[in-house]
Amino acid sequence: MKYAISFFGVLIASISVMLFFQYQVYSDKLESGDGNFSYTQEIDITYRSGNLDIRHQFHNLPSGTINIQWPNLAVSPDCFMDSANSCNRLSEDKTKFESGEGHSQALSYIIPLEGDLTSQQFLKDIFVNLSNGEATYSTVHISTDNDVKGSWVTGLPLIGEQSLSLVNYSMFSGAGGVHELYWQVGDLTVQQLSDHFSFYSSNPLSPDLTKQLKSSKLLSDEHIAIVQAKNVDGQGERVLFLEDFSLESILENIPLFQVAKNYQLNENPRWLREVVTSFLTDSIIGGDKAKEMVNTLTTNMSDDQLSSWVEKLKSLKGEKISSEILDKELSSIFDLHTKYFTMNEKMDGVYPLLFLDSREIYLNSEKILDGDIVYKDSMLFYPADAVLKKLGFKTSVGKNGYYVENESNRYRFPQNYGFYVYNEQRYNTTSEPITIIAGTYYIEENSLKKLFNVEITKNDTTITINSYSN
């Protein structure tokens, strides 16, 4: 018992020391401006004379140095004296908040517009950001002269609007940051159907549409604003523009929008985002190519494989995703190598789901291929042109089939006729020796051995074709 108590005491002491050093490292990072942190913010915007005058307050800041990222459009960056200590950490060059105990700081700046506000004006990257910081809660106040009639959208939930004798006022508040500002002439009907999204449209949504949207599956808890508009330049971080407000359009575009925000997919084709979104939402979303790919993968997966695939996709949240990365994850699910996504990126149609043997291929002692042997219908297929040419044959495609010949032997392989021709003699077959897979001619392994007098040996890393005279 005494030894157990001693061991327990040593364990507690070790954990305490480890936690102390981890905290020290974290504190040092914050002190140097390298550590991640969170804060809350309040932004007061006044539109006047073609400018947005912004007063930006930050709260719950850490005591370490914090670098300030001013918007590229900002002019007249300065301190905002909200209180005696609201600028006591601002450096002289206004590029950072120095180390200190003032956990609330305030800035002011102006975003000049090109002329007056115009309808459907969408402004991005107009707010100050703090390096390594994340806003966990934001409040935005917007004021305009009374004669400026229109609707504002920030992506945050709308708390209220008021039209007074001299000014129009809007207030937004909610979890997360704010990244953009949208303004449109005229009043928009605002319907906040849940804590996760609000709709801005010329007319109210139908009761049936409202009911179905309330029960729809979402991929993020962060509130977004869906605005019925067309010809708007781009999409926002938390503002989604849709011309079509039908149920099908909304249910498809909301998860696509959330996936685009939570996954780094910008450089990939749209169908790839549609495929990822379909699996994450347990639905089929997107165009014909995405739908066919989702159906193909789902059909070829067991329930356990499908569950593992979805979990892998969830684990990639926040990461950069490419066809190569998805192929790697898919290969681990099937325990067979595939280039399904990579090959589909190279063509407009749909490339079939093929499983590949990634071992290097040698003819005698010469390396001739880096894998790409295809498994299909429990058989192994080799790229016909690459292998047969190395065996000394010429290959060609004619109107009566695939031709293989050298000085003494001639073969013709018609497609789907159940026979082949060798030196003008016809031979019936139970399976096709040569087959077309995704537009490429392949030869089945047993046919390669039997018809072309080769022996094939394999180990974990290589496949060797040993040829004899033909």
Query: Alpha-carbon distance between the termini?
Result: 81 Å
Strand order of the largest sheet: 4-6-2-1-9-12-11
Task: Give the strand content.
Answer: 35-45%
Proportion of residues in helical segments: 25-40%
- What general form does the structure show? elongated
Structure in words:
This is RNA polymerase II. It comes from Lysinibacillus halotolerans. The chain contains ten helices and 31 strands. Mean pLDDT is 89; it is low at 1-5, 7-12 and 14-27. It is of the alpha+beta class.
Write a concise keyword list for the protein shown above:
470 residues; alpha+beta; Immunoglobulin-like; seven-stranded mixed sheet; five-stranded antiparallel sheet; 27% helix; disordered N terminus; RNA polymerase II
What's the arrangement of secondary structure elements?
Layout: H1 2-32, E1 37-48, E2 51-59, E3 66-69, E4 75-79, E5 96-97, E6 105-112, E7 121-124, E8 129-130, E9 133-145, E10 150-153, E11 158-163, E12 167-175, E13 180-185, E14 189-192, E15 197-201, H2 207-214, E16 224-228, E17 239-242, H3 247-262, H4 270-281, H5 288-300, H6 303-315, H7 323-334, H8 340-345, E18 355-357, E19 360-363, E20 366-370, E21 373-376, E22 379-383, H9 384-390, E23 394-398, E24 401-405, E25 410-413, E26 419-422, E27 425-428, E28 434-437, E29 440-444, H10 445-452, E30 454-458, E31 462-467
Parallel strand pairs: 1-9, 15-16, 16-17, 19-31
Antiparallel strand pairs: 1-2, 2-6, 3-5, 3-8, 4-6, 7-13, 9-12, 10-13, 11-12, 14-15, 18-21, 19-20, 21-22, 22-29, 23-24, 24-25, 25-26, 26-27, 28-29, 30-31
Helix pairs in contact: 3-4, 4-5, 6-7
